[in-house]
Amino acid sequence: MTLNHGPTTPGPFGPAGFQLVLLRRMADFRPDLAEAARLRLGASLAEQREANKRWQAMVRSPRSRGALARYRSVLGPAESTARRRIGDLECEALLWPVPLWPDLRFEVLAAPDGAVWNEWLVRAPGAPAPVLETVADLVPWSATVDEVAGAFAPVRPMEGTAPTRWRLAFAVSGAPYVADFTYGLLQEVRPGVG
């Protein structure tokens, strides 16, 4: 796999490299799934480390033009954009395809000034959502934060262990559980504290 795919691929490493960055974070929870996905992309561990290094350099660059510009430079034009209201705030929702997960899109919610409020994986418009009725249905990489929250409401959002991580506490038949997400995608569910 070559991370710089030439003039037709935006940015320094393009969408393929960005997927490697997502997988790097997900490997903290699901190394088995992340490794299998990296191999499907045809990328070596060295290429994944290089993609992550480039991404981190862009994030930390003093000349950075902001998160939204970074996503556009790496992922190219958004597949779709829409205005969205969240409470009293209006933002722009931008969606990009993620070939590793064809039923998902990478969503960035941006303020009118371009500041990024949220960045995560969501279900693609028109793609069927998983049926989530029991804890057994919560298979890693099968559901998004919104889907788990909707299926097992009420949920209690908890602080994640990093900016790209979310955590939800909920109960099923009175038993407490905690679900961990990376970039909005379910990684694991474990018993919680009652």
Characterization of the model:
With about 190 residues, the protein is of the alpha+beta class. It is built from five helices and eight strands. Strands 1-2-3-4 form a four-stranded antiparallel beta sheet, covered by helices on one side. A hairpin with a 2-residue loop joins strand 7 (about 175-180) and strand 8 (about 185-190). Helix 1 crosses helix 3. The chain is globular. It starts with 13 loop residues before the first helix and ends with a strand. Mean pLDDT is about 90; it is low at about 1-10.
Characteristic key phrases:
alpha+beta, disordered N terminus, 5 helices, globular, 194 residues, 8 strands, 4-stranded antiparallel β-sheet
Blueprint of the fold:
Layout: H1 14-26, H2 31-41, H3 45-60, H4 67-75, E1 80-86, E2 89-97, E3 104-110, E4 116-123, H5 145-151, E5 156-158, E6 165-172, E7 175-182, E8 185-191
Concise account of the structure shown:
By secondary structure, this protein is an alpha+beta fold.
